[in-house]
Amino acid sequence: MFETIRKYSKVLMYPLFLLIILSFVLVGVNQNYFTEKSPVVAKVNGKDITQMDWDNAHRVASDRMRQQDPNMDAKWMDGPEARYLTLERMVRDQVIDAAVQKMHLTVDNASLVRALQEIPQIAALKKPDGSLDVDAYRALVGAQGMTPEGFEAGMRRDIAARQVLGGVSNTAFATDEQTKLAVDALYQQREIQLAQFAAKDYASQVKTTDADVEAFYKSNQELFRQKEQSTIEYVVLNAEAVKGMIKPSEDDLRTYYKENLSRFMDKEQRRISHILIDAPASMSAADRDKAKQRAEELLVQAKANPAQFADLAKKNSQDTGSRDSGGDLGWVKPGDMVKPFEDAAFAMKSGDISDLVSTEYGFHIIKMGEVKTPRTPSFEELRAKIETEVLAQQVQRKYAEVAETFSNMVFEQSDSLQPVAEKLGLKIQKAEHVTRTAAPGATGALANPTFLEALFSSDALQNKRNTEAIEVAPSTLASGRVVEHFDARILPFEEVKAKAHDLFVAQKSAELARQDAQAKLEAWKADAAGAKLASPIVVSRQDAKGQVPAVLNAAMHAKIGDAASWVGVDLGNDGYTVVRVNKVVPRGEDSAELRLRQKQEFERYQANAETLAYYEMLKERFKVQIKVPRPAETKIS
């Protein structure tokens, strides 16, 4: 549902950042004893949020986010947008706290316990008797840098905060008619016809002179600006490079074979049958005693006549899955059964009948059938696999050692990469036209923002020193140095004359295409009989039939009346398209199941909208002021 919206879900990176940061309660030391008063960046309900509060909160949030996702774009995290999102989160927390106090909302112990039990990591700490393993609980929250008391206080705040907005979000609803209107608009199909006026088709009509091209160059200087760029050398240390330094010895391989032989062997398998008398933990003690007595009676019969075990199981076992096959459980491997059953079964010999075995299901009588002992594979059979695993382990250990050498050498001998390359057998690579941002299609170190930022630091540019060793990928270090640097500049006309000519022709071709298309559009609106249009196609927001977004958007936004609708779409230097929208094409009837899903999702969107509106009202009520400007958004590519 709403696949069109999901197509652009990458832009949700920013609001998701707000949701991930946990609430912070910042109680700071009075810094006025040591420094000037920190400026106020926001106010909520008369309370100040200072620059120092903001810096501390963003540092904590950034550290936590980096722990959760080590590959997160560090440059974005330290940028103005991420910092502003932290400030908005701080404002939101204080608005919600003010609303909790204003509404006198409290959270009782029972609600807290229920909320804690819904956290899988805490639910897993239950003992068999249903009580909480307090020591394990303390260790769990302690790993997050909190005490149980602090964690529970935070939980109470979060539950109370959810009550503030939950009163709106949990009561939102949509009627069938509202859902239908929204869905029909989103999935609407339209029949259209097009006339394409490609700029390239008009290129032959453009007359050029050197003076025209040079005038175009002078009036469009920015088109001929060469970005700041560098020619660089760099070296990369990764697992592949370390592999060349290592060759496992025969002793290493044979020792590994002996130590890991059990892992390489197939598991032992046993053909097992059993008789089960149900006695779950929920059964009363009296009933459990009766079940045990019944099982003991059957045990006597089974041991007295082992050959009749299958018949005894068919008549008496309460395991419905195996009873009809005489209690046969098939071939069983270690790990297939509950531990008490497995411990008893794998201690038996073929033909044995066990004593009573008690499990969470009841009382079992086990009969051991055939035992398949796994074959021991030879060293030579496993040599290739062992070599791969030993090499991987030795590379991992060696990498840590070599990485330190790499880092020290590029720093200590910072005027050249040759020493580290010779010492570690690395190849010095060269790259030209390297800019501050990764070029399209760049890979490896040249696509890493931190590495590029280091290459364009003042030390690297002015002193031509090696960058520090930078982790550009897991277990991959790189260091580079600038060989030659070129400042950004407007390229001379003689260097770009051909490019200027092509751009001039493209611009003039587009103008001719636009003029022709607009003239024909007006003529066709007056008399459609002479229109030269392509065959009709049916498009929708979900199926553009290969049309560029500008054409699709124009077609879907055009007003539809009794007659066809005409619209022109300027495609810049690509030309112009005339669109005739003939009609709306009815959609097929949705299934009841699909309509229900559509309604549920529409209600979620409506709940989000109503919740945001309510939050904006709370911001007004508690006189929120954010005193720093919102940074301009950057596109996420």
Automatic annotation (TrEMBL):
It is a single-pass type II membrane protein. The keyword Cell membrane applies. Its main location: membrane. InterPro entries: PPIase_dom_sf (IPR046357), PPIase_PpiC (IPR000297), PPIase_PpiC_CS (IPR023058), PpiD_chaperone (IPR052029), Trigger_fact/SurA_dom_sf (IPR027304). It holds the Pfam family Rotamase_3. This is Periplasmic chaperone PpiD. Residues 267-370 form the PpiC domain. Residues 507-534 form a coiled coil. It is found in: Cell inner membrane. It comes from Comamonas squillarum. The chain crosses the membrane at residues 12-29. Belongs to the PpiD chaperone family. It comes from the Bacteria. Keywords: Cell inner membrane, Cell membrane, Chaperone, Coiled coil, Isomerase, Membrane, Rotamase, Transmembrane, Transmembrane helix. The keyword Iron does not apply.
